[in-house]
Amino acid sequence: MILPPPATKFETDKAGQLIYPIDNGEPLSNDTEHLRWITFVKNGLEDWFADRDDVFIAADLLWYPVEGRPDISKAPDVMVVLDHLAGDRPSYKQWLENDRPPNVVFEFISKSNTADEIMDKLEFYSDMGCEEFFVYDYRRGKLNAFRRNGGNSLASKPPEDDGAWESRVLGMRLGLDEQGRLWVRRPDGKLMESHREIARRAEAETRRAEVEAQRAERLAAKLREMGIDPDGV
């Protein structure tokens, strides 16, 4: 990739080292639904890879792919780097990360995003070595997938016969329900759930267990009234 010349002189610290900002001045999300989809995918990926310390997952983290060029960066809504040390970082400086670009990136289109902006991101992620790029327009209920092809660039990937897309990198499938809402099926066959959905399911299971325990206690009490030891039944 031929880099454009820097537009301005870069800021340095007191020691003369280049400053790579950790804030690009843009909000994490543009509306509540935008944030909900970002956290849904990020948290779902973190839950799936929770027992691995070699998967780095981040949301809205500035990624600097080129050393010495703090003017070249993107902050994907969600990015995943496989086979790479997890942990906290103020930014992702690729030259300090064994020159590993994100394997997969996700972007969620809000009202403020333009087609030119998404095309710019596609070109950037393609040039910088990402393997897969998923774009979900939650306002229109549309999903687009891009995968690195034989020409060594990201190319549009049509859905498969069942209308879903496969992420070869993550081993997951992505698609849209009848209302145009994104769903993600994990390698174990289960659908990715939001933390709210997980909490509701856990609460429902707790309530069911309490009802069963109460029913069992009533039955035991009835048996004792009849002179029957419930533990011997």
Task: Explain what this protein looks like in three dimensions.
This protein has helices at 32-48, 115-127, 195-225; strands at residues 55-58, 63-64, 78-82, 92-93, 104-109, 132-137, 142-148, 154-157, 165-167, 172-176, 182-185. It is elongated and about 90 Å long. The chain starts with 31 loop residues before the first helix and ends in an 8-residue tail after the last helix. Helix 2 (115-127) links the parallel strand 5 and strand 6 (132-137). It has 3 helices and 11 strands, in the order αβββββαββββββα. The protein has 2 domains: 32-192, tt1808, chain A (Alpha-Beta Complex); 198-232. It is α+β, with helices and mostly antiparallel strands and 233 residues long. The protein has a 6-stranded mixed sheet with strand order 1-3-5-6-7-8.
Shape: elongated
* Low-pLDDT ranges: none
Q: What's the SSE pattern?
A: HEEEEEHEEEEEEH
- Helix percentage: 25-40%
For the secondary structure, the number of strands is 11
CATH architecture of the largest domain: Alpha-Beta Complex
Tally of separate domains:
2
User: What percentage of the residues does DSSP assign to strands (E)?
Assistant: 15-25%
